[in-house]
Amino acid sequence: MFTWSDCLDDGYVATLIYQYSAALCFLLGTPALVWCLWISLRESISGGLTPTQIFPINLFIVEVVFCVQGLCRVIYYSFIHNNIVLNQLLYALFLIAWICRPVFQSCICVERYMAVVQPVAFIKYRLRRYRMGTSTLIWGLTIIDACFRIQSLDNQSKTNYELVSVYCLGLVVISLCCFFILRVLKQPGPGEVEGGRGGEKKQGTTDPQKMRAFRIVLTNLVIILVSSISVVVGYTSLSFTSMDFYRNTFPMLLACNMLSVVASPVLHLYREGRLHCRKGPETH
Fold this sequence. Notes:
Blueprint: H1 4-10, H2 13-47, H3 54-80, H4 84-117, H5 119-124, H6 128-149, H7 156-186, H8 208-236, H9 243-271
Helix pairs in contact: 2-3, 2-9, 3-4, 4-6, 4-7, 7-8, 8-9
């Protein structure tokens, strides 16, 4: 049976890399996420909470929990081991963070898909109450599920199946939504460059906003695919891989998912021009 305590005691290199990834995720990801959350909440207070801010704010909160619980779990398995109450609390936070994250990512992608591909339906369902109700339902179901799971910590296989199912469903939803969004953004609009006869180009210029949105969607899709596929492969391989291979590979796969939490808020701050290395579009 795979246990983090055994891996830490035996000094597996992959587990040490996972520890460093958790520390890096906490040290870099948490300040960046808190900064993103503060910016979103400040804009909401000054200008009113817009419907499109609800899912990103929930995702920022989930990822803060993700960073904190990752480091706390490493500290627990490294130094404590035997506190049942603390173990159950960390396990519940683990389930909430790891399940809510792909679900809110999927909600954001569906929202972006509706805005780009189905604008009429997006306008019809753009009210805040729909997003607030969906967010409340996600949090409620996840917390209830975590409370049931902590009563059976020894039943790890069911948790593995649940995580794989959630991430696979999220992969399908996110990939399809991003595919249709990218296809729409790639199509030329009125006055933009498009193919003419004999491969010639008609006069016009490509909309820079569309190109910027295309790059943002593509970058986020790559980050989500890498992080989600690593989780699916890791938890799926438990049933048919050797224990040594699993102990040397599984922590590396989880580290990929944890490091993606650092990349997302940093890229968000970079695009918004909040980092000193780049001026955002609003500062030009």
